[in-house]
Amino acid sequence: MSNMVPQLTGFIFYEGLEDLPPFNPDKPQDVAPVLHFRKLLQDADAVIICTPEYAFGIPGVLKNAFDWVVSTGEFNEKPVAVISASPLASGGEKALESLLHTLTALGTIKDEHSALIIPAVKKKINETGEITDADTFKQLQLLLDYLLLATQQKMDEKV
Ligand SMILES: Cc1cc2nc3c(=O)[nH]c(=O)nc-3n(C[C@H](O)[C@H](O)[C@H](O)COP(=O)(O)O)c2cc1C
DSSP class of residue 23? Predict the structure, then answer.
């Protein structure tokens, strides 16, 4: 996806969801995978979240990751773009709705242009991850353009 946004100076693909322990506010908070996850978020100008849907919701490991940053606030005022993708015609819309609720609770910057549902994803992206469907490519490009705009606006407000 980073090649769709040449203006980006860096793009980190986070693959550590399974390293995060189950969230428990009564357990020690300063464990390495959690500190690493929080630092990545602190350093990020914006975050893109793409999720499948399991049992009408987001995967437990993804929700667990959000729970780890509720009290520390790394997502607060962070511009986000969210995508659900599913082999089904519904495109994971229930997962996306649930994800948007969680991101509202976390205080992210988003609006109606910040979300994309990709139904029948297996007909649109091939096994090596390339987008083969022109409409999906355009929708993703629009989503990313809008995220860049929101990120730039946020940076301009800081100056
Ligand atoms: C236990 C289970 C529950 C699932 N629940 C949903 C669901 O509620 N909605 C949906 O759109 N897809 C559902 N799926 C399909 C997954 O979204 C799909 O398998 C996932 O995108 C992974 O794709 P893959 O088959 O390429 O690994 C489910 C799959 C499994 C195994």
Answer: P
Residue spans of the domains in the chain: they are 12-21+29-158
> Angle between the 93-105 and 60-67 helix axes, to the nearest 10 degrees?
10
Q: Using CA atoms, how far apart are residues 49 and 155, in angstroms rounded to an integer? A: 20
Contact 141, 4 (CB under 8 A): yes
Q: How far is the CA of 85 from the centre of ligand 1 (A)?
A: 9
For residue range 71-89, what is the model confidence (pLDDT) as tens digits? 999 999 999 999 999 999 9
**From the CA of 113, how far away is ligand 1's center (Å)?**
25
Is this model's pTM higher than 0.90 or not?
Answer: yes
Which helix or strand (DSSP H or E) is residue 93 part of?
Answer: helix 93-105
User: 12-21+29-158 is classed in which CATH architecture?
Assistant: 3-Layer(aba) Sandwich (3.40)
Query: What residues in the chain have per-residue pLDDT under 70?
Result: 1-8
**Residue owning the nearest CA to atom 12 of ligand 1:** 53
Structure tokens at 155: 């940076």
Task: Report the distance separating Cα 123 and Cα 82, nearest Å.
Answer: 20
